[in-house]
Amino acid sequence: MELNEIAWFSSFPEFEELETESKALLKQHVRIVKAPPGVIGYREGDKCGAYVMRLKGQSRVFKVSVTGREIVLYRVGAGETCVITTTCLLGNSQYPASTIVEEEVEDVIIPEPIFQRLMIDSPVFRKYVMKNYGALISDLILLLDEVAFQSLDARLAKFLLDIGNNSIVRTHQQIADELGTAREVVSRQLKRLEQKGFITMGRGEILLLQRGELLKLANSGTANA
């Protein structure tokens, strides 16, 4: 795709301050790619060959255990970058997780040699990368805190509330994957919430009845709500 005006800069305003030489380098080497839902962006063990900046869509980054259990680490949406990709580029390492497209994506692809050159030559680019890297690392630490120190029922309540509406279309397995646990465990916890009158469950749907009680549970971090 020809980048005469480097139109994608509007999605990343910080890049308007890039040095003339850096802009020229990006114009020459960057490409834009699209991928539909279901496409694997990278797999655990792959070598990272480019820095990716998301223009549109969303992908899920996840880790799979030796037993096949999946946990969602984070999602990458419009205007964001991938912390694992940045880690691999900075450390010259392989991907420690995998990613799959959930909503059709459009990405800016900066080849690894150009990324490394800009990290050395461009203070503006380097500041952008490290600022985003730090913010994303903080998000991962929050996830670690939730997994390690919060009870599952509190995490489940938070997950249900974060979806943003009272009608949730998710299978128990999908919720288990999000929380990094087994489907049977999620089913038991949902049944407990239903018995308390916080939710009701139908075929493939969960209805939130008591958002206030779920919020109390999510904030408590304990199993005694």
From TrEMBL:
One of the record's GO cellular component terms: cytosol
Coiled coil location: none
InterPro entries: cNMP-bd_dom, cNMP-bd_dom_sf, Env_Response_Regulators, HTH_CRP, RmlC-like_jellyroll, WH-like_DNA-bd_sf, WH_DNA-bd_sf
Transmembrane stretches, start-end: none
Keywords (A to Z) from UniProt: DNA-binding, Transcription, Transcription regulation
UniProt-recorded name of the protein: Crp/Fnr family transcriptional regulator
Every HTH crp-type domain range: 150-212
GO MF annotation list: DNA binding; DNA-binding transcription factor activity
UniProt xrefs under PROSITE patterns: CNMP_BINDING_3, HTH_CRP_2
Location of the Cyclic nucleotide-binding domain: 14-136
Superkingdom, natural source: Bacteria
